[in-house]
Amino acid sequence: MRLIFPITFLCVIVLAMCESNESVEAVEEEVSATSTPSSDPYTVRLLTFEYEFESHTELSERDGKNVGNKKMNVKAKYGFDILHHDPAGHILTRYRLLECLTGWCDYDIPDLYVDVIQGGNNLQGVYVGEDKPATWNILLAAATSIVTPALSGEGDVQTAVTPYGICVSKFGRPADKRFTRHTYDCNIRGERNHSLIPLTTQSYEQKVEYLQNTKVDADIVEVTSVETLKLAADIHAKWSMEAKTTTKLTMLNRTQLILEPYCQDQESGAECVKRRFKAKLLGTNWADILKNLDTIRPQHAEPTFTTSVRKYREHLFPMGDSHTCEKHSSMFGGLVQSAAHATLQELETVIKDPENDIVLPALADVLAATGTNVAHKVAKTTLAAESPELLEKYVVALAQTTRITDWLLEDLQKWLESDTLTADLRPAVAFTLASLLKRHCSTSASYENACDTGKDEAVNKFVAHVTQCEEADEPCILSALITLRNVGTAVVLPFAEKFICTKSNVSANGNIVAEAVRLVATVSPKHYEAELISNLLRVFRNTCPLEVDSTAQSAAAEALLFAVNTHQSVATYLLRSLEQTPSKSNYELLAYFYALVDELRATDESFKDKWTHLRSFKVFRNNYNQRAIPAFSTVFRGNMAKLPKLQSSFGVKVQFVKNLFKRSLFDLTMTTGKRKTNSLLTLALNTNGLESLVGVKDASDLPSVPNDDKPYVDPSAGMQLAFFGSAQKPVSFFEGQGELMSAVWGASGQSIKAYEGNAVLRQYKGTIPLLSGLSLSLDLLGRIISF
């Protein structure tokens, strides 16, 4: 497996500026105003303020050798008017540009109307004129500094929707007429924010301080805000980028006017702004507001999909379809970027072009990585018609798509349930959909909780469909257990528990019990109930109503050891269940168990502390009689590379049963700065019934002929690949002695290509609004090829 990770980084300051106009004049009111009180009952008091807006933005990029800086300043004056107090306790305010003094603000910026809750200044809605195009500007930036995105009455610390994504918003206690608001721990939004492995980190932090007037109505006379956006790459420790903006709003003038009311007494602010000012709603939260703003794209033209494919084909053709180089990686990334903006007609034309036949396998990966609705439709129709054998390749590659939408999940579910889906393609669709659902659930803590508690409709539909098996349909049950391992949420536990230590006839199938236990091991141990733990212990001890084989016992040992950190009693149960004088039939199981313990002690500090503490008690002291046994089963893990914030390692697990190879697992993992381990590649080899192929000394232990106690099992072997935690459908080497002999005699000695494909490792594309009124356009792409 070759990893290539060139980071292509494009950072463009998008200047929200149209053609320069003359300085914006003060708004002329249609009603007469006077600065002296009036006895007229149809007049009200209007407070209008004049503020100075001054900001400084500095953008710096470091690559270990050079530091590149760019500085931008914006200075302007704007008016802030309090227009209406409605019966619901809302305040309708208006922001209007008075004068642009310095920087990119000298253009037609429409008036901004903001509806807030009195007291907390909580955002309720943002409005602009119906005929006015709106982009991110200094008025929106000023409103962001003043208005809080938190919900009214929900506490000082909340998870709120901000212009930068879902963030923690903390409002500080007042001190000497000073208030603070801290925004941090943001899940930064973007048009695309995809990462198979968290090799890059993005962080945003904002601190705002408000100073009130101590003499007149507690007006806010000064607002100072500092925001910092940081980007870094764990794989390139010396590279980083930082954008820092300091903005200061200073009150220059405060005027009280007596005039006719803009709004009716019982009219809400939302109704008034639409009737009186003919304004349209941009949104009630910052996510909706940004969606409805006109986005100004960077002034560089991206190549069309047709052009990108032609360049890729011309590079590939003279070198043969098996040639790969670093240039392939960059080109594949360009194909994905251009395909994301391609039309349906352009995609279909490229796929149908006979000259592109040589690159169709790569284009299948491109369509999958793009993840748009258009690309998915083209793959299911045009690609399937032009090259039907590539449809499965597309489906498999779709598990690593850069964009997961509700529409895509729903379409795959309908496809899986349809009668038109072929039997050969159905497993691939099921495994891919399971992988996408797992990624969907891990998007945020709320999504994860919904999936675990059975409140996610997409996950519930998939699990219900996959588990529709007859009680005695062992192939269907086995397939469902293997497929659900890709989901990895607590909602799969009830299905797995049906086959763990029960009296069901299906539980007599050792493969089903082992797969059920492995399915349990994919779920976080915090969801394990006492009954499930008890049944896993009984499997490990082989004390269930029906006998279980060593494979299921080993799987139970893994699941229980992984639960030690969460359930402290599990370690004591395991140690108490070990035989003082092991029987010969348990040699391989004990060797595998202690090898697992050694691996966990070497890689998990918390496990090491708990296990060492337990071993200090006399009753749990090491019994070297259990360790000094002849066996082949083992577990090993070694380091491949270590960086300051990154570490990669490989592991090997090998299981034998009575001197015969049973199962092995090879995996590559990467641990990031937050100590989160991510799977890169997993290769599992499984065998069954090999005892029928060899002569044995003890026929009662290893029967080569059928008998009632230990039924004869046909020999079989197979493998299963997983990339980035997404397992593919199992591949069978042989089933029965006939296929085995055919495979042996037909073997050519050549290696078998298990899988070849391309995927986008990291992609971020989006526009981040800054408190200076400018926008930061980011285009980050990391790629791997040929895995």
TrEMBL record:
**Superkingdom as given in the UniProt entry:** Eukaryota
Annotated Gene Ontology MF terms?
Answer: lipid binding; phospholipid transporter activity
GO CC annotation: what is one?
Golgi apparatus
GO BP field: lipoprotein metabolic process
Q: Where in the cell is it found?
A: Endoplasmic reticulum
Q: Which InterPro entries match?
A: Lipovitellin_superhlx_dom (IPR011030), MTP_lip-bd (IPR045811), MTTP (IPR039988), Vitellogenin_N (IPR001747)
Keyword line? Endoplasmic reticulum, Signal, Transport
Signal peptide residues are 1-26
Instruction: State whether keyword Endoplasmic reticulum applies.
Output: yes
UniProt domain Vitellogenin: residue ranges? 76-543
Can the keyword Signal be found in this entry's annotation?
Answer: yes
Tell me where in this chain the MTP large subunit lipid-binding domain is found: 621-782
In terms of PANTHER family, this protein maps to: MICROSOMAL TRIACYLGLYCEROL TRANSFER PROTEIN, MICROSOMAL TRIGLYCERIDE TRANSFER PROTEIN, LARGE SUBUNIT
> Per its record, how is this protein called by name?
Vitellogenin domain-containing protein
**Organism of origin:** Plectus sambesii
